[in-house]
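Onboarding guide, step 5: your first structure request.
Type a short instruction followed by the sequence, for example:

Predict the 3D structure of this protein.
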Amino acid sequence: MLRTEPPAGPGAAHEVESVVDGSWLVSGLVDVHTHPGAEEPEDGFDEAAPRRHLEAHRDAGVLLVRTPGTMERMPGWGDAAPELPRARSAGRWPATPGRFFPGVGGI
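The system replies with structure tokens like these:
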């Protein structure tokens, strides 16, 4: 449990355990603009890429990602995998034909 104040009450002080000494402990971070699954536009969509990207986010301390667009819809397992950050996606990239990466986008 994270606390901002020491626990109150008799004997509560012995319940405090230091997990960080001489550093800051930060609760989960949020990446508000990321595109999991996109390596290079010409590569096309690879379902393994979003998992790799979300694992990298998790390893960096990110617990939530917001993606304003992806090559394809985020796979259904994205929010069901408890070991990965939550992903909030706006869906596929909207773009008029010929105005984005070749073969990607489209309204």
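Each response can be followed by summary notes, for example: The chain has a mean pLDDT of 76.
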